[in-house]
Amino acid sequence: MSSKPFPMLIFILKTYILISLLTLKATANETIEIGAIVDINSRIGKEQKTAIGIAVENYNHDKRNHKQLITVHFRNTSKDAVEDLSTAEDLVEKNNVKMIVVGMQTWEETALVADIGKRHQVPITSFVTASYTPELVQLKWPFLVQMSSSSLEQINCISAIVRSYLWRKVIIIYEDDMYSDSSVLAVLSETLKGDGAEIEHQVILPQTSSLSDPREVVRREVVKLLRKQSRVFVVLRSSVSTASHLFKEAKEIGLMGRDSAWILADSLADLLDSVHTPFISSIQGALGIKTHYSEATKSFQDFKGQFQKIFLSEYPMEDHSEPGIHALKAYDSITAFAMAVNNLGTKTSNDSKLLKNRILSSNFTGLSGQVSFVDGALSHPSTFRIVNVVGNRYKRLGFWSSKVGFSEVVEAENGGRIQVNGSHTMKSSEVKWPGELNRVPKGWAMPTDSKPLIIGVPGRTTFEKFVKVEKVANSNERKYSGFCIDLFKEVLKILEQNYTLPYEFEPYDGSYPDLVQQVINRRYDAIVGDMTILAERIKYVEFTQPFAESGLTMVVPVKFDGSKKAWMFLKPFTISMWIVTGSILVYTMLVVWFMEHQSNPEFRGRWKDQLGTAMWFTFSSLFFAHREKIKSNYTKIVVVVWLFLVFVLTSSYTASLTSMLTVPRLEPSVKDINWIKRTNTTVGCDGDSFVKDYLRQVLELQNIKNISNQEDYPKEFESGNIKAAFLEIPYQKVFLREHCNQYVVAGPNYRFGGLAFVFQKGSPLARDVSEAILTLTQDGTLNSLEERWFALSRNCDNVDASNETESLTLGSFWGLYLVSGATSTVCLLFFLWRLCRRSWQQSQAYYDNVVHPSTDQSFWTKTARIIRYYQKDKPAVSLRRVTSGRAAGLGVEERGASSRWHLVSPSDAAQVFDGSSQHPQSSLEMGNLRSE
User: Fold this and answer.
1) Between the chain's N and C termini, which has fewer beta carbons within 10 Å?
2) Among 82, 126, 120, 76, which Cα is nearest to 101's?
3) Do the Cβ atoms of 621 and 646 come closer than 8 Å?
C-alpha cells in the first residue's frame, strides 16, 4: 500500500510539468510563417535568399518584437511553371504561410503565383515590373504587392537617351513572356515618336529554358537584323542566359561593332555587378540603365557587412559578394511585412486582407529607397544611374530622373541637395562606344567598300541642267552630270572630314514618284536629283535641307501691246503726282507775279499779259533758263527752291520714262488659270513628276499634255497644242533663260517644300547632308554652282512680266513739295509785311503834306477820309498820264494828247508826292486826276 502513492505522485508531477510547459509556450513568442520562392541556382536568387534571411534574423533578434517571430520557408523555382504553381499551393495549404515572396524573374511565373494568392487571399510580394498598368494589375490580382515602380519611368529614360544622341530608329529586343501584353511596347513606341524616333523592328526571343538548342534559335533571329538599317538596339527585357546567347551571336556577325549602339534596361543592367566576365566582355560599349540606390547610408553599410559575410560563407564560388538592387528590395519587402505585423498585433495578424492593406500602407525609407505604394506598386519614381560597360565592369556616367533629366549628381530624397543641374542631353565625350568609336555612333547601317551606298539617280529628266545621265560609248559605264551631281560631290568633301561614304550611282528610268517608292522599298538607300519635298512623301522618306526653292508656276507666250504707247509719257507720275505738281506750279506762279509785277517792268501790262508772263516764267523754268529778270530778293528765294524742285522732278521723270520706253512690255497671252478652266484649254507639264496629278486633283484641270523634254515646249506653243505650261520654279528659270522675251510667268505661284536629296526614313545621313548643304550655302559654294549652271543670259532684257517699272508716287516727293510751298508762303508773308509797312509810312507823309486835314474835324470824319483815300487815291498805285509833250518838256496843256497810262510803283508815287515843291504841275496833275 505504501508504494502505490509514489507512481501517482510521479504522474501528477509530470502532468503539472506538461501543463506548465504548455502554458509557458502559450505565453512565449507567436511564430508567423512566410514563404519565399526564389531561384537558388541564379545570382539573383542567391542574393534574395541571403537578404531575406538577414531581414528575418534582424527582426527576430530585435527585443521589441519578442511577442512574434517570423519563420521563412524557402522553395526553389523550377523550369516548369506548373511545378512552381504547386509549390505555392503547398506553402499556403501545408505551411499556412501569411505571405509569399516571389523572387521569379519572369512575369509569367509571377502571375501564376499571384493567382494562388488571389484564390487563397494571401499577399504575394513580387520584384518583377508588371507588363500591365498598376490599376489593371490590382483588378486582376488584388493580393499582389509589387516591390517595383511603373515601367513608364524606364521607358522615358530610354527615349531620353535615344533623343539625346539624335537616333531616329531603334530595334527592340525582349524575351517572350506568355503573360505579357503589348502595352509596354505601345507606350514605348508612342514615347519614341514624341521624341522624333520610331521602332523599326521587334525581336522576340524565346525563353532558353524551353529550348533544346537555344543558341541556334537566337542566331536565326539575330541574323535577320542584318537586313535592317537601324543599329540602335534596346534590350528591353531578358534573362542573363538568353542575353548571353544574344550578345555572343551579335558580336560574331558584327552587330557589336562601329556605329552600333546597345541600351540595356534594368533587367540586365542591375546584374552588371554580379555577372561573369565573359558576359561583360561581350557587351563592351553598351549603355546600361541601373536602378539607383544610396550606398552612403549607415543602414546600407551595416547590411552590406552582414550580407558579404553570409554570402561568402554560403556561396564561396561567386566572384562578387556585394549586394545588388534585388537583395535590397528583398530585404525591404520583409521589413514592410514585419512592420505591418507589428502594427496589427497578434490577434489581427491572421487577417490576410487586413495584413495586405497594412503592407500597402507602408511608408518608410528602405535600403532600396522610399517604400510607399499606390495601386499595389511603388509610388516613388525611380532614379536611374546611366552606366557604360568598359573593361571588366562599367563606368558611371550620371543619373536620370523624370523630374530633373540627365544630371551628374542625384537629388537627395530628404531634400539635402537642392541644386541639381539637369539637362535633356547626355555627355558623349565620356562614353566608350562599341568598336572604340571616337564619335557618337550613327545608329545606322553605314556603307562600306564592300557594301556601298546605292543611290538612285533620275535617268529620264526633262531639264538636263539638273541631272543628266549619259552612256559612255563602247562601254557599260554611265556619266553623271548636272547641278545636283556637282552639289552632291561638294557635300561629300565636307562629310569626308568625319567619315567616308562609299557610294554607287544607279540610273532609274521611271517617274519621280516611282523613284521615291524605290527608296521606301529599300532598293535604293538615297536619291540624288531634283526631288521635290511633298507632304505625302515626307511620311515615308527623309529629305535633306532644300538646296533650291520650289513652286509651280504657269508659263505662257508673250504678246507685245502697243496700244498704250501713245500715252506712255503720263506713266512716270501717278495722277496724284501730276495734280500736286500742277498745283505747286500755279501757286509759285502767283507768288512770283504778286511780288514782281509792281517793281519789275517785265511783269507789267494788261492783266492777261501779266499772268501770261508769270505763267511763262514759271513753266519755262522746267526746261531752260528764263529770259525775264527778277528784282525782289524774296522772289529769288522762291525761284531757287522752285528750280531745285524742278531739277529733281525732271531728273526723276526722265529716268522713269526712259526705263519704261526701253524695257519691253511683255504682256502674257493668258492672264490667269480661271481662263484656262473656262475655255478648257490644253496645258503642258512634265508627266513624270507629281505636277500632272497636282494639276488634275488640286487645280482641277482636265486637258493636260505630257512633255518629256524642255525643247518640246516651244514647239508645242508654236503649233498651238498648248496655251500654257506648268513648270516648277527652278525649271521655269532655266526655260526663261533660254527663251527670254518670248515667254513670261502668269498667275500665282503654288508653293512646295523645295528641291532636296532623299534618304531612307530615319537615316542619320540625311541630317549630315543637310548640315553640309547649309555649310555650302553660307560659304557661297551653292551660289557659285547656281551661277555656273543657271546664269541668266545678258541678251535677256526681261524674263518676268512682273518686272515693270512702277510710276513715281507722291510719297517719294511730298517733303520737297512741302519745302517749296512753305518757302513761297513765308516769302510772300514777309513781302506783304514790308509792303504794308512802307505804304503806312508813305501814307503818313501824304496826309501831312497833301491832304492837311482840319484839326477840328471829328474822329469819324478823319477815318472816312482815310478809307476813301485807300480806295481811290492811294499813293501806292497812282495814275498819271504821260504825254509826248511832257516827255519833251512841254507844258501841262498838252497832256491830254496822250492816252497811255502806267501803273506807278510806290517809289514813283513817293517821288511825285515828295517833289510837289519842285514841280508845281504835280499838284495840278493830281487835282485834274481827281476831277476826272
Assistant:
1) N
2) 126
3) yes
Residue that finishes a domain, picked among 662, 681, 700: 662
> What DSSP character marks residue 338?
H
Asked, for residue 125, whether it belongs to a domain, the answer is: yes
Q: Which of 354-358, 652-656, 758-762 has the lowest mean pLDDT?
A: 652-656
Spatial distance between the Cα atoms of 570 and 80, rounded to a whole number of angstroms:
101
Residue 725 domain-assigned (yes or no): yes
Say if pTM beats, i.e. exceeds, 0.85.
no
- For residue 620, give the H/E element and its range: helix 607-620
Residue range 342-379, pLDDT digits in tens: 887 765 556 788 888 899 999 999 998 889 998 888 88
300 sits in which H/E element: helix 298-314
Q: Which residue has the higher pLDDT, 58 or 575?
A: 58
User: CA-CA distance, 131 to 236, in Å (whole number)?
Assistant: 12
pLDDT tier at 707, thresholds 50, 70, 90 = confident
How many angstroms separate the CA atoms of 905 and 75, rounded? 137
Task: Provide the b/e sequence for 834-861 (b: ≥16 CB within 10 Å).
Answer: eeeeebeebbeebeeeeeeeeeeeeeee
Q: Among residues 825, 823, 832, which one has the least CA distance to residue 640? A: 823
Maximum average pLDDT range among 58-67, 564-573, 911-920: 58-67
State the Cα–Cα distance between residues 878 and 490, nearest whole angstrom.
Answer: 93
Q: From CA 851, how far away is CA 782, in angstroms rounded?
A: 95
**For residue 688, which of 467, 360, 365 has the smallest C-alpha distance?**
467
- Clarify whether residues 531 and 576 are in a common domain: no
* CA atoms lying within 13 Å on the CB side of residue 659: 15
> Which range has the worst mean pLDDT, 92-106, 179-193, 818-832, 883-897?
883-897
Whether the pLDDT of residue 770 is over 90: the answer is yes
In this structure, are residues 443 and 261 in contact, taking their beta carbons and an 8 Å threshold?
yes
Of the candidate ranges 215-224, 225-234, 419-428, the one whose mean pLDDT is the lowest: 419-428
Domain residues for 524?
453-540
Q: Which long-range contacts (CB under 8 A, 24 or more apart) does 210-219 make?
A: 210/79, 214/241, 214/242, 214/245, 215/245, 215/248, 215/249, 218/242, 218/245, 218/246, 218/249, 219/245, 219/249
Number of other residues whose CB lies within 10 A of the CB of residue 763: 25
Alpha carbon separation from 578 to 48, 582, 585, 590, 844 (Å, rounded): 99, 6, 11, 19, 48
- A 10 A CB-CB count for 509 gives 11
| Residue whose entry in the numeric block shows the C-alpha cell 554570402 | 311
With a pLDDT cut of 90, the percent of the chain lying above it is 22
Same domain, 258 and 120: no
Higher-confidence position of 904 and 146: 146
Please report, for the domain that includes residue 161, its CATH number. Answer: 3.40.50.2300
